[in-house]
Design a protein that fits this description.
Udp-n-acetylmuramoylalanyl-d-glutamate--2,6- Diaminopimelate Ligase, Chain: A, domain 1, UDP-N-acetylmuramoyl-L-alanine:D-glutamate ligase, Protein-Tyrosine Phosphatase, Chain A
Amino acid sequence: MRLSELIAGLNCRVYNFKDIRIEELTCDSRRVAPGSLFIAVKGNKYDGHEFVKDAERSGAVAIATQKKVTSSLPQIVFKDTREMMGKIARNFYGDFSELMIVGVTGTNGKTTTTFLIHSILNRAGLAPGLIGTIYYMGNEKVKAERTTPESLELFKLIDRFRKGGMKSIVMEVSSHALALKRVEELRFRVAIFTNLSQDHLDFHKTMAEYKKAKLHLFDLLSKEGIAVYNLDDPVAEEIQRLYLPCSLNYGFSNGAMIKGEIVEDNLSGLRMNILHKDKKLDINSKLVGTFNGYNILASFAAGVALNIDYGIIKEGIESLKNVPGRMEHVAENIFVDFAHTPGAIGNLLNSLRKYTTGRLIIIFGCGGDRDKEKRPQMGAIASENADLVILTSDNPRTEEPEEIIKDIVSGIKKNNFIIIPDRREAIEYGIKIKKAEDILVIAGKGHEEYQIVKDKIIPFDDTQVVRETLGVHDHVH
């Protein structure tokens, strides 16, 4: 694409203009290839403007900046390069209006809900791509770098999916992505809001800002788009006050447009009735945990919003066996789960309590350099709802693990916790003291395969540590 086409309609100042051909867009100077437009973005740690010379050396043919810098290349100066990245990407790749795009936001349940919707879209023959926390999946799976990529990466990924024959996309949309305008230039056919509880206040500062970022997803609906929300979540009242031309809600309470009833809830899965209009469907899911009932209802609502046949929606839900690191049954009565917020820890323990005949034991920690306010809350909820709490490390980053644990302990009123800062030792100890009738859950990391200690990323996988400790080498299904 010519540079003139790329910046057509965008508010900018231009220096050294030449109408050269742009082959590639990037905001990472390490990924500049010959023919690239390098977009300098100011981030928390690094300022892209300092890497313009590196980009030139690597073959960049033009640069986009927020201030004029010294360069012989064509230079496009915008007021805010982060905000413009999506617009540049849309000019370069197109707007993807031919694809059916489903976005899922909320504090908990995004990953499982997107996996369920992916399964439904698959059954419906809609060749879906998946973008989320665990991996990006088109015709092949790639490990995800972040839940919702930067706009340039996101558009490039969707373009690759489209070229690979994908007709629909289901994606997790994080509050960071919404606040940082990564999805601003996409339009969603269905936008789903699962729930809201405290998380990411290191970034958003207040719950009001966090909620505002999440609700912004509804502003990005396409003309014929449908908003889907959880009627049982307190935010529902606020959502109902928004001007949403088309919306669907789900829940277990009376009055939900798509209403769930749990018939059976045990360690082999959930049996539910789903009622919509005059139809009643019996759903048998392999997913474990009452909270998964909400994820099933959200995915069912997405199917209804997309006019997919009830029978196909049911097949899609029932054919999903598990989600990596989400209530993952690793060994007899031992689970690994990603729960890392007060709400998620509460849901997790309440669900597991139903199946526990012995003690309910939880191992968890809190991330370093992240929302400190949730630490005592998580401590309080874990201690109230489990019989034994083993406190350990979870990505301490630049903080001392013992200091993070102190913050968690400050919320605990009971004397039912022990401290083992080394995560491997904590898991080994939990397995050693677990009796046959006890349930052990290792929370916080889920599918993650690393620990971040200071500035080092160390390989670490909870499920693998469980298997090594038990001397088993296979998944339990």
